[in-house]
Specification:
The chain is mainly beta and about 230 residues long. The protein is built from 1 helix and 13 strands. The N and C termini lie far apart (about 50 Å).
Length: about 230
C-alpha cells in the first residue's frame, strides 16, 4: 500500500512540473492521424485542472501545414498555477510517411524538441514516435504506435512505451474518443472524452485524464482544449 502511494505521489510531482502537451494535431494527447494541408494554420489552448490540489496548467500552441504531408508546430509548456514556472518552447514536426487511401491505413513519424527557458532542470529534451492509424468504413479510427522520451522530461530516466487511441464520430459534429500513453510517468494517462466541431473554425475538446497509477493519491485531472482553424 505504501509503495503504491509513493508511486502515485512521484507521478503527481512529475506531472505538475514536467507534463507536456503535444505540439501537432492531436486527439487529446496522442498525435492524431491528421496532417494540415499546405498553408493551413491551427491554434489551440489547452487547460488542465487537478482536483487533488487545485493546480492548473495552460498550454498555447500553433500548428502549420507545410505541404508534402508535413506539419510543424510550437508549444509553450510549463505554465502552471500555483507552482514554479518551468516554461519551455517545444518546436515539433509530424510527417505522414504513408497514406493508403482506400485501404484506410496510414503511417506517421514525429519529433518534439523541448527547450527550457525558465527555471531549467535540463538543457534540452526530446520525444520521438512512430504510429499507424487504421480507418474503417464506419469512420472508426484506431491509432497504435510507440514512443521514446529522453531523461528528465516525463521521468528521471529515459522512457519508452506505447501510445494508442480510438475515435468514433457520432454524426457530423461530435466524436467520442480516448487515447492512452503506457507507463508510470508524467504522460501515463488514459484519457476518454468528446470532441465537438462547434463551427467550421472552432473545435472544443472535453476529457478527463486518469493516471496509470496513483489515482487514489490524486493522479487524475480535467483536460479542456479550444482549437481554432485560422483559414
Amino acid at each position: 500500500m505504501r509503495l503504491r502511494l509513493c508511486i502515485g505521489l512521484v507521478s503527481v510531482l512529475w506531472v505538475l512540473t514536467r507534463a507536456q502537451s503535444r505540439a501537432q494535431e492531436t486527439i487529446f494527447n496522442v498525435p492524431s492521424g491528421d496532417v494540415l494541408d499546405r498553408g493551413k494554420v491551427y491554434g489551440e489552448f489547452d487547460f488542465t485542472s487537478r482536483p487533488h490540489d487545485g493546480t492548473k496548467g495552460y498550454t498555447p500552441r500553433i500548428v502549420i501545414g507545410v505541404g508534402h504531408r508535413l506539419e510543424i508546430g510550437l508549444n509553450v509548456n510549463g505554465i502552471v498555477t500555483p507552482g514554479v514556472l518551468q516554461t519551455n518552447l517545444g518546436p515539433t514536426i509530424k510527417w505522414k510517411g504513408y497514406d493508403g487511401g482506400g485501404n484506410g491505413w496510414a503511417f506517421f513519424v514525429g519529433d518534439d524538441l523541448f527547450l527550457p527557458v525558465q527555471n531549467r532542470s535540463y538543457n534540452a529534451a526530446n520525444y520521438v514516435y512512430a504510429e499507424f492509424t487504421k480507418m474503417w468504413k464506419t469512420k472508426t479510427r484506431a491509432t497504435f504506435g510507440g514512443y521514446h522520451f529522453t531523461r528528465e522530461l516525463i521521468a528521471p530516466a529515459q522512457r519508452a512505451g506505447g501510445q494508442f487511441a480510438v475515435e468514433q464520430p457520432v454524426g457530423n459534429r461530435l466524436t467520442m474518443a480516448a487515447d492512452w500513453y503506457t507507463g508510470t510517468n508524467a504522460l501515463g494517462y488514459v484519457t476518454p472524452g468528446i470532441i465537438l466541431k462547434a463551427t467550421s473554425k472552432l473545435t472544443l475538446y472535453g476529457s478527463y485524464q486518469i493516471g496509470n497509477s496513483g489515482v487514489s493519491a490524486g493522479n487524475h485531472q480535467l483536460l479542456m482544449e479550444l482549437g481554432w482553424n485560422f483559414n
